[in-house]
Design brief:
It is built from 10 helices and 4 strands, in the order H-H-H-H-H-H-H-E-E-H-H-H-E-E. The chain is mainly alpha-helical and 247 residues long. The strands form 2 sheets. It has a two-stranded antiparallel sheet with strand order 1-2. The longest helix is centred in the middle third of the chain and has 25 residues. One of its GO terms (cellular component) is endoplasmic reticulum membrane. InterPro entries: DER1, Rhomboid-like_sf.
């Protein structure tokens, strides 16, 4: 059993494995009282006045108590983060990291705006944006896989684009705050529109991965199968190694 878990962990792509590891370590560290959630939650006053800037990052790694809800979120994190990194962002680790950076930054700005301008709204009561970032990944995956058939607890079937709305409805049913999911959906839709829709409408791309991030994550070399030459007696399928690029 341990070997199966180890193999499953090692087979994860680098960003998914890193994010999952940091999330488990942070959440477990808080549960074991090695660190305190009060030292990692997003507090605008402490960030601005006390320069505790690490809170802008650490709040994305804490997922609450070590209970069934934690396992549920770890499943979604591991599944949809891995699916995105291995499909839509295959061979483009830098672009995937930039997507998470964009989503985390947008979520932070939305939270800070809500906290400073509308402190009476429930958004001001959110202290960790980890679940929202996970929900953003679910949203982006669902929009890029419109034909995938899914089922909710075996009760009814639907296609992938409805998955965020089904999860949002489930959160409302179990009396959880819908603001966490709504923030993730807003960030996911912003990324999807700017990355997939807007370039098709105008022929221009607004979101471009900075060169410094591309230097940190060089493009992977992926084997891409091509058709064999016709009329030359070339047997089998010819494969050429080339980096996957996106204009």
């Amino acid at each position: 059993m341990a070997q199966i878990v180890e193999d499953w962990y090692k087979q994860m792509p680098i960003i998914t494995r890193s994010y999952l590891t940091l999330s488990v370590l942070t959440t477990a560290g808080c549960a074991l009282e090695v660190i305190s959630p009060f030292n990692v939650y997003l507090n605008p006053n402490k960030v601005v006045r006390d320069w505790e800037v690490w809170r802008l990052v650490t709040n994305f790694f804490y997922f609450g108590k070590l209970d069934l809800d934690f396992l549920f979120h770890m499943f979604f994190l591991a599944r949809y983060c891995k699916l995105l990194e291995e499909t839509s962002f295959r061979g483009r680790t830098a672009d995937f990291f930039f997507m998470l950076l964009f989503g985390g930054s947008l979520l932070t700005w939305m939270f800070l705006g809500g906290a400073f301008l509308t402190s009476y709204l429930p958004i001001a009561e959110i202290y960790f944006l980890s679940n929202s970032l996970t929900f953003m990944m679910v949203y982006v995956w669902s929009k890029r896989n419109p034909n995938v058939q899914m089922s909710f607890l075996g009760l009814f079937s639907f296609t992938a684009p409805y998955l965020p709305w089904v999860l949002l409805g489930f959160s409302v049913m179990v009396a959880s705050s819908p603001w966490v999911d709504l923030l993730g959906m807003a960030a996911g839709h912003a990324y999807y529109f700017l990355e997939d829709v807007y370039p098709m409408m105008t022929g221009r791309r607004i979101l471009k991965t900075p060169a410094i991030i591309k230097a940190l994550f060089p493009e992977d070399v992926v084997v891409v199968p091509t058709r064999p030459a016709q009329g030359w007696g070339a047997p089998g399928v010819v494969a050429e190694a080339q980096p996957l690029q996106r204009d």
